[in-house]
Amino acid sequence: MSIADTLAAVPSTSPSAPPLRREDTDGVALLVLDRPKARNALSDAMLAALGEALAAIAQDRSVRAVVLAAEGPVFCAGHDLKEMTAHRADPDRGRAYFADLLSRCAAVMQAIVALPQPVVAAVQGTATAAGCQLVASCDLAVAADDARFCTPGVNIGLFCSTPMVALSRNIAPKHAMEMLLTGDLIGAEDALRFGLVNRLVSPGEERAAALALARWIAEKSTVAIRFGKAAFYRQRELPLADAYQYAAAVMTENMLARDAEEGIGAFVEKRAPHWEDR
């Protein structure tokens, strides 16, 4: 699925208070959720801004990796419940709005997975509900060692069904079910043990650590990374024999890329490779 396909339902943002900012350095695009007073909730405007940024990055060959971070004490509190509650006054009690909102949110999560560049989350504070979904949708995650995660919908009568999709694709089923059924917060150590995050760092260092990891990945061939990221998500949904057949076809194409020829030649000749990204 292309980025354009996954983001087709996401509307444009309002020019008035952008909830997201982008900073590019050394081939890494830093996307910062910048609505700290609202706990960086995934409002309509935030989802639209994320969708626009991801669509732009997908076409930007100067970007080799992405870091998703947030301002303030909370990474992301999930959907904007005030915004959602306001639509209960709609003639259909909000049914059409809720369906559209969840579709738009799913499009953004899928766009992260479909993005050619790897995405590293830098998590501080708490990541709850769709905020936890956002972390799980990223390819990698670095968290402060005091960060906490949860899918608390069950506590307010609303099972976190859409966050469940990303969560259950990241961690073991029983860990996922415990989070979903109890709604309890888990600490960073458990998140690391469960496989929801890759690395823990001291509070305040998560963004720098995520950027360092992204820059290290950015030094690799973008052709190899693009082949590999797409193949990773595709193969894991296939039966074993089909996965091997698919992966072999991908690797054959990758072997014919100029960067694979250069990389193998450089290894044999004991020199550093010069990537052409083709």
UniProtKB/TrEMBL annotation:
PANTHER family: ENOYL-COA HYDRATASE DOMAIN-CONTAINING PROTEIN 3, MITOCHONDRIAL, PTHR43602. It comes from the Bacteria. Keywords: Fatty acid metabolism, Lipid metabolism, Transit peptide. GO terms for molecular function: hydro-lyase activity. NCBIfam families: PRK08139.1. May play a role in fatty acid biosynthesis and insulin sensitivity. The keyword Ribonucleoprotein does not apply. The lineage of its organism: Bacteria, Pseudomonadati, Pseudomonadota, Alphaproteobacteria, Hyphomicrobiales. Belongs to the enoyl-CoA hydratase/isomerase family. This is Enoyl-CoA hydratase domain-containing protein 3, mitochondrial. Residues 1-22 are annotated as: Disordered. CDD domains: crotonase-like. One of its GO terms (biological process) is fatty acid metabolic process.
